[in-house]
Amino acid sequence: MRNRLSAALALSTISFFLAASGAAAAARPVWLVAAGKADITPDLAHETVWLAGFGADGRKPTGIQSHLYARALLVSDGRKTVALVAVDTIGLYRRDVMDMRRAAGWTGPDRYLFVSATHSHSTPDSLGLWGRFPGVSGVNEQYRHDVITAVADLVNRLDKKLAPARFYAAETDVNPRGLCRDSRDPVVIDPELDVLQFRSLARPSKTIGTLVRWSCHPEVMWDDNDEVSADYPGVLCRTVEKKTGGACVFQSGVIGGLLTPDVDRKGGPPQEIKEMNRVGTAVADDALRIIGKAQSIAPASVSFSSRTLVIPVENSRYLLLLPHLTYGHRVFDKNGKPLSKWMTYWIPLKQLLFFPIPKPQEPRVKTEIALVKLGPVKILGVPGELFPELAIGGYHGRYRFGHPLVKPGNPNPPDLAKAPKGPYLRQELHARVGIIVGLANDELGYIMPNYDFKISRTRLMLPRLPGDHYEETNSIGPSVTGILLNAYKKMLAR
Ligand SMILES: [Zn+2]
């Protein structure tokens, strides 16, 4: 395999050192850190789970291909503490995250639980979309409860172990060829690899925890696989943990629109395992290489902010799933009143009879956006699968990595003249190391640019339009994008 860190791509490895000034030294805080993991592999002998991901065709796992974990990295300045938690799961609803916060007792102003899903397919259904039959939830209530308890116990155990640490941060662009490709035009692949690492102040050779953020769907193990698997993030974390010690948290970046592994699956699951190991190891090695060269970041303050946003449910498929959404999201009317159970059945029927339902009658859900600052490092939480172009642009081919920007013969190609001009979210972060994390604190599905939001009939999402228009069917609707981007603008301006 080619050396992806070759001169072919102008690498922009950024590592930096912020010198502590004499004045700041007197009251200088110290990074206090702890990291660890909890095994959340389902016990297949005693509980029934259904594998998530791909079509809802009732995949009952026959074995454990790799263990699943909840991993956490706690960072504190002595006053405020943030727990960056990543769970090997397809996704978590805001309600799951709120339950984790309540179970952990992390609801006060000084502690924040930032929980993201690795989005590994081949993990137990956590969203209620992949049961025995289409339309039947596959969520195992006991397993869900066990995961929530495991996260709560993990962060509270680590909270007692916070120890002084040195902080390193780095980011680079990695050539995605052979690792990740874009299945939807225009081809925009986010090449950014972000790494944070904390090493013991007392024993500099001891790594306490590492965080790796990269953008690509964890779906190397395809729908022909019948075993529980953490997919490539599991390999990546295992590799980092084996080589450096400590725990490794993997955060999924901007993977909508749709970044998928650039792998060869001919040969079925045995070949998929080889490819999964290849991708996970390659990204882990790149992460370790860049963090090995990074310089330390002087102790500074830890801060966080989060906001609750109201999002209309416009997608007919989501409307049909309202009784399920009430499991994941509480659904509200325009006055903020929770919808009754019978209304969640009546609205889909109304949608079918009197399509489309009037805008003011659209149900709404609440979601959460978050910004964590570890000194100069910013981590932005996005509650779903953001299209990479909304984060980094690339409509002129900057991130196509040798692929055609638009496939010849695409029946409904994007009209690039109408694409948003920028600045894009990554630029608006204004951070040397700025990390945009997807599937953070909620899962609303794809968050896509409106200029290419195309559906076959006005607002009825089925059947989908020919060409690259799958994502529309798994997006809460076109309005979510503007609501989120405006809210981020305000949050980042503060
Ligand atoms: Zn996805």
**Main sheet summary:** 10 strands, mixed
Poorly predicted residue ranges: 1-26
First-residue to last-residue Cα separation: 45 Å
Shape verdict: globular
Number of strands: 21
- Report Rg: 22 Å
Contiguous helical run count: 11
Helix content range: 10-25%
Judged by helices, strands and strand pairing, the structural class is: alpha+beta
Rounded mean pLDDT is: 91
The small molecules bound here are: zinc ion
Strand content: 15-25%
Structural write-up:
It contains eleven helices and 21 strands. With 494 residues, it is α+β, with helices and mostly antiparallel strands. Strands 1, 2, 4, 5, 6, 7, 9, 10, 12 and 14 form a ten-stranded mixed β-sheet that branches. Strands 15, 16, 17, 18 and 20 form a five-stranded mixed β-sheet that branches. Helix 2 packs across helix 3 (141-159) and helix 4 (231-244) crosses helix 5. Strand 5 (81-87), helix 2 and strand 6 (111-117) form a beta-alpha-beta unit. The termini are far apart. Residues 1-26 have low confidence and may be disordered.
Concise overview:
It is built from eleven helices and 21 strands.
Topology:
Elements (H helix, E strand, L loop, with lengths): L13 E2 L6 H5 L4 E9 L23 E2 L4 E8 L4 E7 L6 H11 L6 E7 L23 H19 L3 E11 L6 E3 L9 E9 L6 E8 L12 E2 L2 H14 L2 E6 L6 E3 L7 H25 L2 E2 L4 E11 L3 H5 L1 H7 L2 E2 L8 H13 L10 E11 L2 E5 L3 E2 L1 H5 L32 H4 L5 E4 L8 E2 L31 H15 L1
Parallel strand pairs: 3-11, 5-6, 10-12, 18-20, 19-21
Antiparallel strand pairs: 1-7, 2-4, 2-7, 4-5, 7-9, 7-14, 8-13, 9-10, 15-17, 16-17, 17-18
Helix pairs in contact: 2-3, 4-5
The protein binds zinc ion.
